[in-house]
């Protein structure tokens, strides 16, 4: 019995002396950090310490939990892992990254760091000529479908990070998780405000060693966005707006009022007809439900992907019921063909461009005041 008691005392003493065993590392002497002023992004925190930067991503599907923590350490310095806070260590600036999405490729190019991308996925959705030229010259590899990339080719690349988008209940990232390469979970798309998503460029800028450029770019985006918002909301007229087309015989997906695009309609000084639905994603409705609410709308915006632009005539041939909407009859429809525009590439990190376009469509007097920015970058008036 005495030996048993002594054993228990010894175990307790060990646990007191080494409280971090079996759990997260703690550092009583961790230096004070400088927390960046993140003004719009709700799932991002960046704290800069002497010698490293800690980036914490909040789980957008369970906001009481952390999705991922990263410790960014200069590749020019040696470090002792025991002196760093818990998180995935990423040596920066990245030099041989793999980027899964077109939107992040576009941002990296704008930040002047395209040479730091060694491989991409889903190149058919990337509209950047510089990317396709690099693929042609084999200085950048096309790793195929982002859902199931060519892992063998990825191993040959020896990447220093993988930038990909996380999804709820995805079950992980398959074989790429076993490569031992830092996975950067690009959850910016889960932000519910346009500026919130754009602000993630400040994180990506720090990955590629261009934090000042990223901060400066975001400051310009924010200023332009808020300027257009103020101008649009100062207009006395708020046109009634709805968007898109049915995806099949039984579902018309409309953006909820709490979604990025739904909030942008409001920022552009419009009365979005489905704003009363607070959903932050898309909601499937019947044709009859949409028609009953939007038949007298002032403006109808449609976004589609096709080899041939849609017209009033093609819409009537597709479904005669479209002709009963006021926006159709009064020729107040605007279309964005994503097969030819860089809508998906640009808008996430340049929402000010889309907001400016919406403002000019909803309030033509603003377009007249701004000759250089007529509504034509993404949306154009539908042809007959």
Brief descriptors of the model:
2 domains; Rossmann fold; five-stranded parallel β-sheet; 384 residues; five-stranded mixed β-sheet; globular
Structural account:
The chain is α/β, with parallel strands linked by helices and 384 residues long. The chain has two domains: 59-66 and 91-209, Nitrogenase molybdenum iron protein domain (Rossmann fold), CATH 3.40.50.1980; 226-381, Rossmann fold. It is built from 14 helices and 17 strands. The strands form four sheets. The chain has a five-stranded mixed sheet, with helices on one face. Strands 8-7-6-9-10 form a five-stranded parallel sheet, with helices on both faces. It has a five-stranded mixed sheet with strand order 13-11-15-16-17. β3 (52-58) and β4 (66-74) form a beta hairpin. α6 (201-207) packs antiparallel against α7 (211-233) and α7 (211-233) packs parallel to α13 (351-362). Residues 1-28 have low confidence and may be disordered.
